[in-house]
Structure formats: structure tokens, C-alpha cells
Please model this.
Amino acid sequence: MTEQLVMEALTEVYDPEIPNLSVLDLGMITGVVVSGNQINVDMIPTYAACPATSFLQKIIKEQLVEKFPNAEITVQVITSIHWDTNRITENGKLKLKEARIAPPPVHKGEVTREMLLGVTCPQCSGVNTFLQIPFGYTLCRAIHFCKDCNASFEQFKPVALS
Amino acid sequence: MNIGLKNLLLKTADDSFIVGHRNSEWTGFGPFMEEDIAFASMAQDKIGHAWALYKLVEQMEPDHSAEWLAFQRPLKEFKSCHLVELPNAEYDFSLIRHFLFDEAELLRYTLFLESSFEPLTHLARKIKGELKYHTMHAETFLFQLANGNEVSKARMQSALNECFPYALGLFESFEGEKELIQEGIYPGEQVLKDKWLAAIAEMIAEAGLKMPEFHAASSVEGGRNGYHSDFLLPLLTEMREVIAIDPNAEW
Model:
């Protein structure tokens, strides 16, 4: 039982809405400590109101209980660290594209209007697109329209802290 | 707990909680699908923000849980302003309320970033990042409709005129405010109001609308001190239906 093995187990815990996107890809895991037969995982919610947070906490625990049946496992949601989209890994961005969701650009501490304009269409990779609404089917997404594909697509919205 | 701090946290939470619920009432009734999604998302965000603030109050005064603060606190102890209590009415009114409220909210959290009370600064960093999308939405619709046609412009103007006195009530002073200013926790409602007036005057002018005239007596107040509009009680009653049936239900 090592931190490495715990991290490997977490690569199989997926976001309920986005196929193959793990909690590690999303940057939600802030700490993994293995001590004796105790495993402790710290996680952070993406949005303050994300309804999937407690569900993810539950399935993370279930995964670790299954993989490490003799361990004492705690998974806690902490608030001392805030999530923002820069925490999404490169691998995570690839998975988003595979799921036909435009990944967020890396920000330098602030979300600018430009980040929401001419977003690359995940279907055709063109930029003949416009923002329809800065909200989507889940809290983390915005809806854009690709004029070349003549279809809407979602973008994982860039979020910065302050 | 410092009474001024408690009032500041509760009124900010209550405003978000109540206007969040009002936003959710557009679900299924928006003029088109994307607007339904917009108000539903903003509702979810705002109720999440309220929850985070209630949790902060709970940490400081553990004998009342966040659930109790939201669902069982007596009406008179609510600190929401009348602006957020008003029913949704027509879409023009709701959009203008959304614009006036969210611009103030964004500025409020900008002030919170400078607070000497660290837990508030910390929370503000998270919430302000999310509120940017709310103001982006409000501003987009303000400009689009004010520059639409004669009808949309007229409706936005009349909604602005109607809403404005209620919006001024956002800045009603509250017990303990002076101490918060002295302690560097919060610079006070007058500072926020001045910033807000400057910000919205610019956007209203840019949109080609007229800034409503107002004077000292224009503001619809009372909410910060427990005197609420007639709309709050039926709204809270509806929001509390579940817990009225099962007091042990968890949020």
C-alpha cells in the first residue's frame, strides 16, 4: 500500500458526467497520505455548489475500499484550498476533447472575455464559433455554437480565483 | 461572535439564498432554453454560495447549524433585502434585478478580498470567480435588449425605473457596521454603494438607457433589520416544506 498505488486506483474514479475523465485529471485530489494501514485522501469541490461533490467523495471511498480491503480509509472534502481550471491536467484536457467538450484555456489568474470568444470547436477544430450562453447543462460548462458544423458544443468554462 | 460580522455574513447569505431560489423559479418558464439553463445555473451557484456562508456562521456559532439558519430561523432574523424577495414578474424585471443585484454582489466580494477577517477573504476568492459569469450574463442581456428595438428598450427602461428604489435597499446600514469598518473587516455599505453607482451608471449610459433619479428617501429598506416585504413569508414557507414534514431531513 503506497501513495502511488492509491493514485493509480484514483485514475479509475470518473466524473459522473464526463466519460473517462478521472478525479485526478480534474485536479480535485489535493492530498494522499498512506500511514500504516490508514489511507487518507483530501479532495476539493470544483464549484461551490457542485452537486456531484458528495457523490464523488462516496465513489472515491468505495474504490479504495475495494482495492485495499484491509485499510482504514478516510476521504474528506477540504475547504482550505480552492479549485480552479488550471488544476485540470493535460491528460484531462485530452479526455474533454474526446468527450466533445472544448477544454478551458490556461489562465494567468483572471478569466478574460477573449477566453470565451472564438473557442475551438471540438468536433471540427475550427474557430468559426460564438458563445451562446455562459452556462450549460452542468455548472462547469458554457454553450457555444459552431457555424461550420451548424451545431452547439459545450466548453468547460475557465474559472480563476478572484 | 461579533454582531456586525454575523449580520454581514447572514445578510449576504440570505440575499444569495433568496435570489437563488427566485432564479430557480425560471426553470421551465424561461423565454428560451438557454435562458432556462442560465437562471438554473445561477440559482445553483447562489444557493451554493449561501450554503458556504451559512457554514461559516455555523463554524463560529456551533449551536445553530447551517440547515437551521436556512430552514428554521425565524422570519424576523432574516436579513434579506426587499429586492431579492420580490417575485420574478416579467422577464424584463428579472433581468434588471439580476443586473443590479449581481453587479453589487461582485463589488461586495471584491471588497471582501481586502478583509482583515481571513475566512471571508478565502471564501471570496472562490465565489468571486464564479460570480463573474453572472455579471457577464446580465451585462450581455442589458446591452442586447437596450439596443434591440423600441419595445425592448422601453421595457428595460421601465424595469430599471421600477427596480431601482429596491436596489438601493441593498445598501441599508445594519447593526455593528461601524465596528466592522474600524476593524478593517468591511469598509461599509456607503463605500459599496458609491462603487456600485459609478459602475452601473457607466453601463447604463453605454446601453443608451437613462439612470433613474433618486434621493435619500427613494430607497426601500427594512430587510437588513428584520422588516420584510409580504413576499418573504410565503417564499420561506414554500422553501421549508420538506423540513416542515421531516425536521431531521439533511440539506
Q: What stands out?
A: Chain A has two domains: 3-77, 100-156. The interface with chain B takes residues 47-51, 79-80, 82, 84, 111, 113, 132-137, 139, 142-143, 157, 159-162 of chain A (CB under 8 Å). Chain A is about 20% helix and 25% strand. Chain A has a mean pLDDT of 93.
